[in-house]
Amino acid sequence: MMSLSTMPRLARIVLPLALGVVVGLGAASWSPAFADVASTGSLTATRTCPAFQSIRKSTNPGNVELVVGHSYDVLSQNARVPTHYRIRVEGAEPPERWVSIDCGAFKEAAGAAAATGAAGQAAASGATEAVLSLAWEPSFCETHSRKPECAGEGADAFDATHLTLHGLWPQTREYCDVSRKLEDADKKGDWASLPKVDLSAATRQRLAKDMPGTQSLLERHEWIKHGTCYAGLDSEAYFGKALALADEVNASAVQALFAGKVGQTVTSKEIRAAFDSAFGAGTGDRVSISCINDGSRRLIAEIRIGLAGPDGKLATMTKAARSADADCQSGVVDAVATE
Hints:
13 strands, Ribonuclease Rh, Chain A, single chain
């Protein structure tokens, strides 16, 4: 254990007065980081400030504070016009923390200005900040028939005629403020060992219908890998946003196209045209289509929708994203297996 005499050169861990001891730090806090914007350099602390794991919840495992005069590596900032920097605090657990920009003097790394300028130009031209991935469940179940969500799939189920939620994926980072142990477990597919996601009963009920993969604990994987990095939202808000976006698609001409084409081939051109009809000209260009092979058949597996800009309606966010390749040009909209 690090002695108190060596602590000031890294960060001061404020000891609980009532206990007089340092409480061991665990990996049980799963508050998300704010969305990252590229920024590299150093921050020299000019005042004592708390170093938060989560800005929104003000969580600070170990009560870590900056030490005046010490320089910290800056990893990113929370917005293009930032209020907080994400820094690395050696000796803290987790070491990546958020601090207010007025806690010290920022010095940009050599060459960072040019890189930031290029990033700004990319954003202005329509960088894709996140992707909404919606699955066609009958296609998934053709090759995953033993999955719990596939065993009870029926022709009258929601997912027989509607697109289902796979995930909402920020495009900059994964596994934000997640311990290496849990990251490794997730990558191994050991989702049962991941912590239960903190959700209301109403949201869990909605996910059970709109995200059949919850029967295989998909929501735990999506939160750990992607949700922890999405725009500073907690788990309830993150899944609420994903469900709202999926609902917009399923209340549109896109869902009508898929439901009307069950058992038939649909083209990427038709799918993109449905998006243009539902959400405005050009939105279809931000949609890519993923297909899988099932014997001699080519099946539509997922559609992936680019999103950018302020957190709003799907039409606004999709128009702000960059155009994408269609990828799969056509495939069958699979029907629920009857055997």
